[in-house]
Amino acid sequence: MFNKPILYHYPLSFSSQIARLALTEKGVSWKSRVVDIGLPHENFSPWYMRMNSDGVVPTLSHNNIIITDSINIALYINNNFPGPALVPSLDKERELMEQLVNLQQQFPETELTYAQLGGITRRIARWDLENRKSDLANYAKKNDDLEDLYYAKYDAVEHLIESIDNPNRKQDLVNRVHKILDLLEEASVRHEWLAGPDYSLADVVWTVFLARAEMLGFRELWRGGRHPNVGAYYAKVKQRPSFKKAKIYTKTSRVVFLRGVVKAYRLTPIFAIALAALGAYGAAWWFGFV
Question: What structural domains and CATH numbers belong to the chain?
Fold first, then answer.
């Protein structure tokens, strides 16, 4: 039962950070397998699509069982490994935890990330989305058994492009950030932790959300006095040893980007050269955490 699980993940992926934080808080030892969702689009590779039909990270493999989706992974970890419980035992606290987790999961974090981009970084991100469509179409032609999955993923990328090209979408998302922080401002003072006296999965997902919000430039929303309780709560979760050990990112990583460039160069040298021509700084910002 306690064989080491393998986590297929990407360092700065939002959902991957949720899975890593859950593993760390639970005290589970695990094996890392990085799936580069940046330049090489490794998550579209047939071997990975056969394991995770959505072509996203993370994926957990344990005792010949495959679990996808970060919340499902966290619940599997909680139910199958010893360590501190991530789900409250009391019905009322468990229901509150589920409400808070669902609230976070319903937020379109990917769209917000794209919406916050500007200048050359936005152009690089837009260019990368077109390259994703091209890769997906090529994979669909070469893998008949996965054709439907690839075209479903293609449609999802198309939908994302339509969303980020909508000039009104950014303000809508920013308004939602304000509203969601208003809700968190109230929730963060009701108990010691979000769902009760003990740390839970609700704290896992909101820790990662606030870290991503900080990365995207929203830190002043809780540092400027409007959400002081959110600021105090975020400071508290950042002090937990798991925040550093699970590698929860509050800024992009050029190291991650450079590793992706090396891998992309090995696959398609002209691709990496073209990326450098587009602009190293903007590319590093984008591919460092895409």
Answer: 91-245 (1.20.1050)
